[in-house]
Each structure stands twice: as structure tokens, then as C-alpha cells.
């Protein structure tokens, strides 16, 4: 099945057809995985050409030999032939070994060895040098049924390109989706991603032109502008993956120096140069709004829906580090409302500490709007703490297992809350309760089951 790529600058407009050219995706379609797979398998064959000699040739007919001692002459010729055969065999063996050694240098990252782990086998065998040392991490996902789901993750490689990874429930592990080589992403840029199903978000009839999942990527380009890029994954009537520049990019909005990003569609949260929390929101077009919140310089951000139904009208909880270094939550009931404080115990954190959060429906009953909310953050020693509420007793804080490790200094924690804009509604189960961060230059994946944390492995 062929993969069609399409480069479009129309942002969120639905673009039918697949006959235009795309830029920036270097990929080969893999029928075993949805989307694009960037890791190309190199297949190289080596061989030897066999030259057949006439086995009926008679050594007695060699001219120039002395005829008075034929036995000694034949013995000499046999010895010479044996020596010649040994030389040829030695050359052939040397050629084969040389070919095999050359073939090893062509091995792709997926065939490299993986360091052992005392907690869990890594999900991917790529080396630590595959990730930029202080790369941001963006993650998004969606339920496709009550038990099946998909996750997409973005990070910046040492080549400065933006790399996309994919995992679908049932897969053996993570796989490369694509490398976006034509994005002018700034080295060390913040990265946030979110997603939606087009027919759900636009409330459109499901047809071949409107039924796709769109992944939204937000970053800072080389001109220090906030930029948007999208990737569309379409399964019917044919599988194709499109990509293009988003409609936010021409606004050339600026984020504060060192700002971090977070996104839960259709919202993006950033910090400006005055340490104010700004929201970029899509409702037919992009707008920028000051939320009126003063944050710690270089504060981390997280964004989760207030409820399943509330998420459909912009009811969000914004989690950040206030300018007094305290952990804070501000929420709203719909996108046009002002935010108000959520009751939370006073927790003072180290300046610029990592913060991640995720949310899960407390019940499968759609009339029950309560959510279980979890916030991960680092204390002064770098250990990961969890502040959460999963019943009516209020917020609590506890330590997490030492086995989760300590995120690399100056890096973030990104957690996954599936989009509400999907064919499959948010599920009360914990299969997608996952967080990601860098440890020793590799992206670690951890999972919560409602009671305990475990290390899944390394994404890359």
C-alpha cells in the first residue's frame, strides 16, 4: 500500500485528494505499522564469482619440462597446484570476512545493542545519542475503542530535526514514525503536541475527506516565532499520511526566552517575556489570550480537562509554578470563562522544576464528571513526587519509587492525557496513564496502574 504525502499551508482546513507533493518527510511505508516509519532497512548482498576450470586438462602436456623423469615432474606439478589452491582459498576466505565486516558497518540503529536495565527492558534499542541532551518531549494519544489506543511522541534529535515516534496497543514496542527534516526548529526549542479526530472536532459527517486524526506540533523556529506543524493520519478509504505548515505560524507570535510549552487541543499554553501565562486557542482561527496568571520564570506547564464533557467546551485545569514558586492550579468551566484557583495544599517547589500531569475519568458513567488528577514534580533532591486526587478526600502528596530514577537536570516531565476529540471516548482505565522524561539522555516511559508506578522502558 502506497503512502501519499501532502504539504499544505492551509492549517486546519480539510484537504481532500492526495496528488500534491509533500516536503520534509523522509520515510518508507511499513505495512506492519500505521503512518510512516523513518528507519529504512538496508539490504546488501555479497557473493563470490566462481570461475570453472577445465577438469580434463592434462598436466603431462605442459611444455618445457624434462621428459627423462616424468614421476618427479608430476610430483612438482602437484605440489605447485596444491600451493596455488591454498593461496586461492586464503584469498576467498579473506574476501568473505572483509565483506561481513563491511556489512556490520551498515547496521541501522534498530540492530544496535541495548544496555541492560535493572528495572525493565527498554522498548527501543536506539543509542542515547539519538536524543538532544536538553530536548523537549511532546506526547499525545487517543482511544480507538474501549481497549485499543495509539500514542505519538515528539522529540528533538542531536541533528536538530524533530523526530516522531509511534506506539499502538498490541505493538511489540515503539517504532520510528518520521523525521521532519524541513522544520526550521530552533536548537533546544520547547515542544508540545496534541491531536484531534477531524469528524469529531469539526462535527462533520464521517467521509473520506473528513475522517482523519490530526497531530498538532508546536515549537519555536529559528526566528524565535511560535510555529505550528501538523501531521494527518488517514486510514480510509486508503491509508495516507499528510503534513503541512499550520495556520498559527504566519502570526509570528513570540514566547518568552526559555518558555516551556504544553498543549491539550485546542489550547496551547506558553509564558511571555513578562512571566505571564498566555494561551493560544483555536476556534475556527487562532487567538492569543492573557490568562492573567503570573508564573515563575521558565515555569513548567501542564494542561488537563476538567471533565470529559467539559473538555469539549474548553473546560481546562492549568497547572504551573506560580511566581512565589508554589505549585498552583487554575481552572475554568468553558473556554470563554476567566480562570479561578483550584483548592490545593501549599507546596513550594524548586524554581523551574519539572512538572507533568494527567487526568483519567473516575467512572465509566458519562453523567459522572469527576476526574482522577495526578501531578508529577521534582523536589529539591531531584526525586519525583506525586500530588493527586482520586476520591472526595482532597489532594495528597507522596513519593514515587526510586526505581523511576531522577530526570536529567534541566529537563522536563511530560505526561499523557488522551484527547477528548476522538472516536473512542476517554476511558476510566489506566492503560494510557504514562509519563516521559530524560534519564542519561534517553526517553524513559513510566506507567501508573491506579496504585503503583512501574518503568515500562526507554522509548529511544
TrEMBL record:
Give the UniProt keywords, A-Z. Membrane, Transmembrane, Transmembrane helix
For this protein, the record's Gene3D superfamilies field holds: Fucose-specific lectin (2.120.10.70)
Q: Where is the composition biased (Low complexity)?
A: 107-125
Transmembrane segments annotated in the record for this chain: 75-97
> Residue ranges of region Disordered?
102-125
Name this protein carries in UniProt: Fucose-specific lectin
Source species, please?
Trichoderma asperellum (strain ATCC 204424 / CBS 433.97 / NBRC 101777)
Show the taxonomic lineage.
Answer: Eukaryota, Fungi, Dikarya, Ascomycota, Pezizomycotina
Amino acid at each position: 500500500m502506497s503512502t501519499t504525502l501532502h504539504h499544505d499551508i492551509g492549517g486546519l482546513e480539510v484537504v481532500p485528494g492526495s496528488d500534491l507533493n509533500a516536503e520534509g518527510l523522509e520515510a518508507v511505508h511499513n505495512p506492519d505499522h500505521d503512518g510512516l516509519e523513518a528507519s529504512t532497512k538496508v539490504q546488501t548482498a555479497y557473493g563470490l564469482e566462481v570461475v570453472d576450470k577445465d577438469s580434463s586438462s592434462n598436466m603431462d602436456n605442459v611444455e618445457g619440462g624434462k621428459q627423462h623423469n616424468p614421476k618427479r615432474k608430476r610430483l612438482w606439478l602437484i605440489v605447485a597446484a596444491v600451493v596455488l589452491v591454498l593461496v586461492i582459498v586464503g584469498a576467498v576466505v579473506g574476501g568473505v570476512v572483509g565483506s561481513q565486516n563491511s556489512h556490520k558497518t551498515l547496521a541501522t540503529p534498530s540492530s544496535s545493542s541495548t544496555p541492560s536495565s535493572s528495572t525493565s527492558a527498554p522498548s527501543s534499542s536506539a543509542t542515547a545519542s539519538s536524543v538532544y541532551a536538553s530536548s523537549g518531549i511532546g506526547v499525545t494519544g487517543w482511544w480507538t475503542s474501549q481497549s485499543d489506543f495509539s500514542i505519538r511522541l515528539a522529540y528533538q534529535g542531536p541533528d536538530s530535526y524533530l523526530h516522531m515516534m509511534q506506539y499502538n496497543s498490541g505493538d511489540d514496542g515503539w517504532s520510528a514514525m518520521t523525521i521532519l527534516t524541513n522544520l526550521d526548529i530552533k536548537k533546544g526549542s520547547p515542544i508540545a503536541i496534541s491531536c484531534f479526530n477531524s469528524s469529531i472536532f469539526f462535527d462533520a459527517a464521517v467521509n473520506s475527506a473528513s475522517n482523519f486524526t490530526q497531530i498538532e506540533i508546536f515549537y519555536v523556529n529559528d526566528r524565535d516565532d511560535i510555529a505550528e506543524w501538523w501531521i494527518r493520519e488517514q486510514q480510509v478509504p486508503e491509508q495516507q499520511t499528510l503534513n503541512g505548515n499550520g495556520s498559527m505560524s504566519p502570526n509570528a507570535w513570540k514566547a518568552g526566552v526559555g518558555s516551556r510549552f504544553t498543549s491539550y487541543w485546542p489550547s496551547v499554553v506558553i509564558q511571555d517575556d513578562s512571566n505571564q501565562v498566555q494561551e493560544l486557542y483555536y476556534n475556527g482561527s487562532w487567538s492569543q489570550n492573557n490568562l492573567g496568571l503570573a508564573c515563575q520564570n521558565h515555569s513548567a506547564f501542564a494542561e488537563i480537562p476538567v471533565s470529559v464533557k467539559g473538555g469539549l467546551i474548553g473546560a481546562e485545569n492549568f497547572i504551573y509554578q506560580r511566581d512565589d514558586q508554589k505549585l498552583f492550579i487554575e481552572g475554568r468551566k468553558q473556554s470563554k470563562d476567566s480562570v479561578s484557583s483550584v483548592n490545593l495544599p501549599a507546596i513550594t517547589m524548586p524554581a523551574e522544576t519539572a512538572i507533568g500531569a494527567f487526568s483519567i475519568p473516575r467512572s465509566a458513567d458519562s453523567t459522572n464528571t469527576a476526574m482522577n488528577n495526578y501531578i508529577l514534580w521534582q523536589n529539591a533532591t531531584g526525586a519525583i513526587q506525586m500530588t493527586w486526587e482520586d476520591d472526595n478526600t482532597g489532594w495528597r502528596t507522596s513519593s514515587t519509587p526510586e526505581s523511576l530514577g531522577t530526570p536529567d537536570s534541566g529537563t522536563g516531565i511530560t505526561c499523557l492525557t488522551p484527547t477528548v476529540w476522538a472516536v473512542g471516548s476517554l476511558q476510566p482505565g489506566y492503560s494510557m496513564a504514562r509519563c516521559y522524561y530524560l534519564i542519561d539522555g534517553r526517553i524513559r516511559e513510566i506507567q501508573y496502574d491506579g496504585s503503583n508506578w512501574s518503568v515500562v522502558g526507554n522509548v529511544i
